[in-house]
UniProtKB/TrEMBL annotation:
Name of the protein in question: Acetyl-CoA acetyltransferase
Keyword Signal carried by entry: no
Entry keyword set: Transferase
PANTHER family found in the cross-reference section: ACETYL-COA C-ACETYLTRANSFERASE, NON-SPECIFIC LIPID-TRANSFER PROTEIN-LIKE 2
InterPro entries: Thiolase, Thiolase-like, Thiolase_C_2
Source species taxonomy: Bacteria, Bacillati, Actinomycetota, Actinomycetes, Kitasatosporales
Entry's Gene Ontology molecular function annotations: acyltransferase activity, transferring groups other than amino-acyl groups
Keyword Nucleus: no
Length: 388
């Protein structure tokens, strides 16, 4: 059986940042409508749906709210990498003919819920199963990332200033993004002098908390001719899960992207050094650094030196998180879908003045990678995309 090519044909964000009046369902709907409008396709072509994180029977509740009756569904939930993993599943389903057009949607009012007292700022994953052996010792999600960062610093001499430079470059990229929540420039000293959250992370080492949603529409190649936008092809994907307890993580300096990334590149038939732009999950600065290593953009232990001297800026050697990332643009929870949206916009040349990456010939990028991370480096999904 011939496998069909799969393209991303529509992307969009909902209103993001400070959205006090909308419900998560409304943000799902807003993002979905905008992504369909972006594609130029009608709702009737959508026969696949993927969603996680909302509703008692996700994604059935959200599909019903959107007026969809999909014949293919996915509710895989593996944290922030959920959306790259879902995109992989959707691409496989479309290629095999099990669906024609799959809509991925996410929306969250994480910030507004805290402001209104509907939830607290602490995220608990419970104390059942393997986690029961760590919870009594007070391991928070951020503490786990902080421990991993400290291990990398110990092993390879990575400095807190190098980690801080990641936050500085993310903020500089956000400056040209009208949808970014924070756009004022910051310095390494600003990052270092902030309140300590979990050593070595001060506040600006950590992602922001925002409201917002995103949607991505994938479709089979025969639908591309009916779309209003240039297709962005799914070239290769990879996924991997590593651990849930820190005691079962063999090496704190290696993320699951070390598996998902090479698999995605191999399936795409490209090398890391051919990639023009990278969108990487950045709930904390260390995530960016170690993922860059594990995707093969630099050798293990060289991430600290790699991120220095503006290499991650929009005009740098390897533009990373060109929208400002979770550190400055928006982070309403499981942010992986936002990575795909930004990667597609960059490949289409639609990122806007000051933010659009240009390659040597002055055109838009040809290859992009979106790599999501879930839990505390528990899972990874990597998607390689190419311009049509």
């Amino acid at each position: 059986m011939t496998q069909r090519k799969v393209a991303v044909v529509g992307v969009s964000l909902s209103d993001c940042g400070r959205v006090d009046e909308a419900t998560p369902y409304a943000l799902h709907a807003q993002a979905a409508r905008r992504a369909l409008a972006d594609s130029g396709l009608g709702r009737e072509v959508v026969d696949g749906f993927a969603s996680a994180g909302l509703g008692t029977l996700a994604p059935i509740e959200v599909a019903e709210y959107l007026g969809l009756r999909p014949r293919w569904v996915d509710s895989t939930s593996v944290g922030g990498s959920t959306w790259e993993v879902m995109a992989s599943h959707a691409a496989d389903a479309i290629a095999a003919g099990h669906a024609n057009a799959v809509l991925l949607v996410y929306g969250s009012t994480a910030r507004a819920d805290i402001k209104a007292g509907r939830r607290t700022g602490d995220l608990s994953f419970g104390a059942r199963g393997p986690l029961q052996f760590e919870v009594p010792y007070g391991h928070t999600l951020i503490a786990k990332y902080a421990m991993a960062a400290r291990r990398h610093m110990h092993e390879y001499g990575t400095t807190v200033e190098q980690l801080a430079s990641i936050a500085v470059q993310a903020r500089a990229n956000a400056a040209s993004n009208d949808e970014a929540m924070f756009r004022d420039p910051i310095t390494v000293e600003d990052v270092l002098s902030g309140p300590m959250i979990a050593d070595p992370f001060t506040r600006l080492h950590c992602c922001i908390r925002s409201d917002g949603g995103a949607a991505v529409l994938l479709a089979a190649e025969e639908y591309v001719r009916d779309c209003r936008t240039r297709p962005v092809w799914v070239l290769g994907t990879g996924e991997y899960v590593s651990h849930t307890t820190m005691s079962e993580w063999p090496d704190f300096t290696v993320s699951p992207a070390a598996v998902s990334g090479p698999v995605a590149f191999e399936r795409a038939g490209v090398r890391a050094d051919e990639v023009d732009v990278a969108e990487i999950y950045d709930a904390f600065t260390y995530m960016t650094l170690v993922t860059l290593e594990d995707l093969g953009f630099c050798a293990k232990g060289e991430g600290g030196a790699f991120v220095e001297k503006g290499r991650l800026l929009t005009g740098g050697d390897l533009p990373v998180n060109t929208d400002g990332g979770g550190l400055s643009a928006q982070h309403p929870g499981m942010r992986g879908l936002f990575l795909l949206v930004e990667a597609v916009r960059q490949l289409r040349g639609e990122a806007g003045e000051g933010r659009q990456v240009r390659v040597a010939d002055g055109g838009a990028p040809r290859l992009a990678v979106a790599s999501g991370t879930g839990g505390w480096f528990c899972s990874s999904g990597t998607v390689v995309l190419g311009r049509g």
